[in-house]
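Below is a filled-in request sheet from our internal design queue. Each sheet records the structural input a requester submitted and the sequence that came back. We keep these sheets so that new team members can see what a complete request looks like end to end.

REQUESTER: design group, bay 2
PRIORITY: normal
MODE: inverse folding
CHAIN LENGTH: 312
BACKBONE (tokenized):
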């Protein structure tokens, strides 16, 4: 992806001759929104990392219990969206234009409904504001009903404003359309020529209008996933970092960032020596690891560099 961050923190699309034709073929709404959304979301990552590298990494890892590498919905989303758009392009090549338009709507629904991106952003914003990683930023209502995307976006907007970076919520505010989302998930829409028509409420979207909604949502997903990936990949070697002051009462406590070759940061563990562990110092390990990686880490407490996974 030909994306570059300027020294002023703003992002731009800057491709060479090889990329120019591909960029020109992007939908204009996607091409306009992508660098703007990157510039809006980036401060949440940068300021959280500056405030507490330890809590920043916990926010990126998103560990909520005894979860191994197979319990990560966001990683599944990161694979699913590109896969759906490859399927979309294949369908278009076959001339199944309406089928491709249905698929585009369903991808929009996946993007705005996916829980993990909201959790990730909310944790980053709060860590940037001096808070700590939390397991559940958007608990259900007392009656058990889950919070809607609109409610999450409102809460995130308030958090971002309190942290002094209100622009972080602007991409979500821009892509969220409650009526559009409801029409998709309740199948209350139809295509007529180039128009998308919804029946609850009665509304007609031109092809340009509904493609703008879809492409801005895709730009938001791409912006967030790009920032997530580059921060994960920025760790190429294990690194010792301070823990959060509230994590341990021992002032000597440090954490080691566990790195997987070809991927980046995938976890953290204590930095105690074998002698310190024998003396009773408490160990910890946090991350998402395959069973083979767990066996490797268990066999050598000092190890923090994992081999490249065959499927990476």
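RETURNED SEQUENCE:
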């Amino acid at each position: 992806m030909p994306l570059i961050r300027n020294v002023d923190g703003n992002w731009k699309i800057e491709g060479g001759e090889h990329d120019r034709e591909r960029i020109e073929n992007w939908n204009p709404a996607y091409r306009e929104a992508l660098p703007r959304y990157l510039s809006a979301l980036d401060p949440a990552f940068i300021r959280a990392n500056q405030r507490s590298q330890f809590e920043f990494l916990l926010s990126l890892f998103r560990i909520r219990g005894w979860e191994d590498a197979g319990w990560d919905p966001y990683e599944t989303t990161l694979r699913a969206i590109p896969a759906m758009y490859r399927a979309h392009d294949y369908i278009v090549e076959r001339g199944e234009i309406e089928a491709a338009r249905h698929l585009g709507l369903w991808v929009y629904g996946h993007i705005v409904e996916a829980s993990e991106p909201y959790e990730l952003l909310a944790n980053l914003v709060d860590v940037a504001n001096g808070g700590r990683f939390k397991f559940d930023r958007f608990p259900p209502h007392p009656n058990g009903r889950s919070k809607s995307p609109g409610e999450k976006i409102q809460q995130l907007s308030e958090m971002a404003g309190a942290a002094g970076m209100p622009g972080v919520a602007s991409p979500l505010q821009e892509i969220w359309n409650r009526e559009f989302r409801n029409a998709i998930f309740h199948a209350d829409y139809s295509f007529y020529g180039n128009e998308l028509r919804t029946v609850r409420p009665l509304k007609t979207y031109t092809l340009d209008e509904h493609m703008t909604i879809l492409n801005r949502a895709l730009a938001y997903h791409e912006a967030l996933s790009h920032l997530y990936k580059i921060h994960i990949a920025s760790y190429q070697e294990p690194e010792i970092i301070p823990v959060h002051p509230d994590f341990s009462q021992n002032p000597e406590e440090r954490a080691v960032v566990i790195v997987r070759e070809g991927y980046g940061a995938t976890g953290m563990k204590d930095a105690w020596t074998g002698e310190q562990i024998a003396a009773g110092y408490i160990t910890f390990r946090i991350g998402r690891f395959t069973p083979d990686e767990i066996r490797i880490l268990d066999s050598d407490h000092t190890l923090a560099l994992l081999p490249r996974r065959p499927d990476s």
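SHEET NOTES:
- The mean pLDDT is 94.
- DSSP finds twelve helices and ten strands in the chain.
FILED BY: M.R.
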